[in-house]
Amino acid sequence: MDDTMKPKPAAALKKKEKIPRQPMPEQDPKVRRCNFQEVPFGYPVEIAQLEASRCIHCKKPVCIDGCPVGINIPGFLREIRDGNFVEAARILKADNALPAICGRVCPQEEQCEKVCVLAIKGESVAIGRLERFVADWERETGNIQVPPIAPSTDRKAAVVGSGPAGLTVAGELAVRGHQVTIFEALHKPGGVLIYGIPEFRLPKAIVMAEVDYVKKLGVDIVYNAVIGKYLTIDELMKEEGYDAVFIGTGAGLPYFMNIPGENLIGVYSANEYLTRSNLMRAYDFPNTDTPIVRSRNVAVIGGGNVAMDSARTALRLGAENVYLVYRRSRVEMPARIEEIHHAEEEGIQFNLLTNPTAINGDDKGRVQSMTCIRMELGEPDASGRRRPVPIPGSEFEFIVDTVIVAIGNGANPLLPEATPALKVNKRGNIIADKDTGLTSIPGVYAGGDIVIGAATVILAMGAGKQAAKAMHEYMMGLER
After folding, report:
1. Of 397, 181, 361, 148, which is closest to residue 264 (Cα–Cα)?
2. FRET partner for 41 with CA separation of 20 to 30 A, picked from 95, 228, 397, 442?
3. Cα-based torsion angle of the residue sequence 84, 90, 93, 94 in order, rounded to the nearest 10 degrees
4. CA-CA distance, 372 to 370, in Å (whole number)?
5. Cα-based distances in Å from 398 to 230, 297, 343, 370
6. What's the DSSP call for residue 150?
7. Residue 44 carries which DSSP code?
């Protein structure tokens, strides 16, 4: 075929634009607000293939650069288009051991999809939805394939925490032939994936299936093992014989606003509220052992994904009114657009440009109302968002019986406090090399939220991949 017969990039783009981005079927808002079942149903086969066919297969696929773990996106989209789903899954899992999770909760709209060429004049290819489709198809049809495992290196690695960073490191090292053990503080694996993200957004069965895949690679998991108490880093290396350690303990320390009334009965951190519901199944009390407050009027403070998760959980637990209280406007909300949209559809009431100044209680120490002040936006602050400024004389009070504080989390302090040689910054985050994850202790690496603060699943996984590569090189360089 000569050059005159080859499709030109512009012509190809125009052709693909004729196929609109395919919506994903989902539960009706009036139905789903009363249950904990997953909201989207996922793509059926024919729709997935149609959506995948929208990819124009650029010469320089910038979507790969937009992915923190470097997935060969055009490659797996091509296989979906052609109906080769087993091969699509193989391509995906070459760079991402947790595609069913990432396809559900990662902000593709700010990463791979944001730089998709089709987004210049229209809508990007639905990369995240197609990632979910492939992972779900593989699991549901039983076509899960374990990649070849390298011969044993006779090296041992310990991974502290079974969240997305820890699972990624463990899988990457196991494939390279290392003996890997994950030490998990809780009684179930998954970290924030299992205790922080609600069932209606990320079903527990999906998390467990992804964990099972990592275990099939040869990874062992020890539960109820709080490193820093159960064993120290020093003991892991000197007494237990681990050649390298990865710390992926996350950002589990909740922040509060330090306003009057935060110690009243009925005030929760989002961490506690979601952990009770997600991990402890408090929504099924008394059939489960963990209770949770039954509320009528709930205020959730914050504008991120955790705030959306908390508000939508409160609604499903029977609240009559759920108010999202956020000090900036909708434009500045850090939550995913899809999560904001779902929350609004379900009836969450948004109180924007509003900031709490006090939580008020009754004579029994229980929450009965919250005092707030109206805000206006001033000049941008260090985050690039316009700084909220109080409007004098705009204070008001509204009735609530439960307040959930979802304004962010800090680094889990337990392990650093038990490891004096481990350097941390002023916020308590472990200081680690941005390219390798190496900490101030030789052979000890760290990544994910414990290093960069509360962020996304895929960023934690990207850090895990980098650390695994560095740990492999370090261990292979040890003398035996």
Report:
1. 361
2. 95
3. -130
4. 6
5. 46, 10, 21, 6
6. P
7. -
